[in-house]
Amino acid sequence: MTRTLIPAMTILCFVASFLISRNITIPKPVVDKQSEAINIRGDLLKVLSVGMKRLISDIIWIQTLMESDLDHYKQKNLNSWMYLRFKTIATLDPKFYENYYYGGQYLMVVKDDLIGAKSIFHLGLEQYQDDTQLNWLTGYLFAVEQNDPQGAVKYFERIRFKPDRPNMFDTMYVKISSNLFGLEDTLNVAKETLARQPDDSAIKPRLKQQIYSLQAQIDLQCLNHGGTDCRTIDFENAPYIKLGDGWKAQKPILNLKWKIREKKEGP
Fold first, then answer.
1. Per-residue buried b or exposed e for 5-30, using 16+ beta carbons within 10 Å of the residue's own CB
2. Which of 89, 92, 106, 181 gets the highest tally of CB atoms within 10 A of its CB?
């Protein structure tokens, strides 16, 4: 009887186990990419590459793109796994331009790793110092992402006269200048920038608004402080309006002070 019962109970347990396993979902452990990513030091790979540095860097680049995640990296310690991958590629193949251009942007925009992005852009600028896009992106990181227009000027100055500078560069440069220089100097920058624009430039109207506002601020300061050699007409040759003891412009004056955009908190 016992010999018959044991096989029967064994079969019953197997059947019960099968039925339970089909109806119960066992949660899988979730490990973020930062914790599981494997990074090998670039200097070690450089020694072991035996003349195949470009091939290995291409493989790491493709693998990194395939494994890329969207999680923000909140630490400021140059230890995000994607930063370490991009740095390894830069060590293996310093002339790998796409590593700096796309890698830096991914760190800046997607990972929100501004320290890492800045480091990758700087590594790129060591190889391509006068590159328009790398200087623009580095300046943009300082000015917009870190609210540091002073830090952006060095990079913006390198591309100020380059014909392939981004469309929004000129108006941004004038606005940054208004935070760093006096009104007269900023007005000269704006006028010089306007003079370089082609006839069909889409930003000419915006530049003219900036120049109108800068000129009006200078003139109205002079008029309202009782100056004796003040302009009485604005940039568009319209007279300023006398109101009681003060003067005003006929058109609204733009606020050119640099303002950082609000960054949204998120994953």
1. eeeeeeeeeeeeeeeeeeeeeeeeee
2. 89
